[in-house]
Amino acid sequence: MFAIAPRLALAQELDDTEKMLRDLSEAPGVSGYEEPAAQVFMKYLKPHVDELQRDNLGSVIGVKKGTANSPRVMIDAHLDEIGFMVKRIDENGFVKFFPLGWNFSQQLLDHRVIIHTRTGNVLGVINTGPDIQEDEIIPREEMWIDIGVASKAEAEALGIQPGDPVTHESKFAVMANRKFLLGKAWDDRIGLAVIIGVMQNLATEKHPNTVFATGAVQEENTLAGAKTVVEAVKPDIAITLDIDVTSDLPANTSEDYAQPVLGKGVVIILHTYEMLPHVKLRHWVQSIADELKIPYQFMLEEGGGTDAGPIHKWHTGVPTLDLVISQRYYHSANGIIHRDDYESAVKLITEVVKRLDGRKLDELSFKALR
């Protein structure tokens, strides 16, 4: 026998940004139960804004006053992550569950989860019956959460009841190449992290506007948070942040489906089922990135949708641009992002806000014939 020295990447001291990303990623917060994630977001946001507000659904609004009251610039990401809700407990103590957000059934088996009760957390594992065929995809309805008890009474004694939220059990990790970051809930905690980074930059920079940094609830479920928080903010212009797929995988990923690559920059969304970006705003943001040599990529999403959908349709319309961070293995318990993509998003949005005054907003507006 001989010992193999482990790689040291995971044991290295985390820098401040990695600690923030860890805290955001590991915070529980499925749709409708976002408060732990909201508290982490507010903890990191508070030092860089003038005030913090909440709307009646729980979305977070951080206000940073610049040298002018307007334009009112909204930078949005969502607080919630995919997960589950307890549906019922059977007589043997197995927990049946319902998805909150889109979870891929083939990725669920043998995954550890945490059931968050009113009295504490309970560890469980998702599984199904024996003798699964190799090419068989088990429907979610035939799975259960095993919490290691023998009866319904035991499960109830732990505080478990229908309606309890369930999150994936997954820890943040810096990978062998330190720019690759592993964790759960990058959708959309990396968007929240970008907002924190931008607000940190603006704390020492002049900006000719008022910035509203928002963390919206319930994006994965109904987009409800975006619909209410936009009403509270009443923005003149908006940038939304989310994640999307990446093409740099050994699987046969068609370039017609996914174009971005990890580490090649923030992604500008050209189309989703919910919206088309404001073309003048998109071209202006691209020109800033080109001028400053900030790397960016494009993604044409044939389906899907983000908070940008309801935000850009508010009132008489809000010029909106949807920016995303590429992620490997999206909507799963373990996703991988790249530090450089985070950095490029922070730098680009910071520069956009610094240049966005009333005159520029007027230039970006559509004019009537005179």
Structure, briefly:
With 370 residues, the chain is an alpha+beta fold. The chain contains 9 helices and 17 strands.
What labels would you give this structure?
8-stranded mixed β-sheet, single chain, 370 residues, 2 domains, 26% helix, Elongation Factor Tu (Ef-tu), domain 3, alpha+beta, 17 strands, 6-stranded antiparallel β-sheet, Aminopeptidase, 9 helices
Structural notes for this entry:
The protein has nine helices and 17 strands. It is an alpha+beta fold. It folds into two domains: 9-81 and 184-364, 3-Layer(aba) Sandwich (Aminopeptidase); 84-168, Peptidase M42, domain 2 (Elongation Factor Tu (Ef-tu), domain 3, Beta Barrel). The strands form three sheets. An eight-stranded mixed sheet has the order 1-2-12-3-13-16-14-15, with helices on both faces. Strands 5-4-9-6-7-8 form a six-stranded antiparallel sheet. Strand 14 (266-271), helix 6 and strand 15 (296-300) form a beta-alpha-beta unit. Helix 1 (16-26) runs antiparallel to helix 4 and helix 4 (186-202) packs across helix 8 (339-355). The radius of gyration is 22 Å and the shape is globular.
Topology record:
Layout: H1 16-26, H2 35-45, E1 51-54, E2 60-65, E3 72-78, E4 83-89, E5 95-100, E6 112-116, E7 121-127, E8 144-146, H3 152-157, E9 165-168, E10 173-174, E11 180-183, H4 186-202, E12 210-216, H5 224-233, E13 237-244, E14 266-271, H6 279-292, E15 296-300, H7 308-312, E16 320-326, E17 335-338, H8 339-355, H9 358-364
Parallel strand pairs: 3-12, 3-13, 13-16, 14-15
Antiparallel strand pairs: 1-2, 2-12, 4-5, 4-9, 6-7, 6-9, 7-8, 10-11, 11-17, 14-16
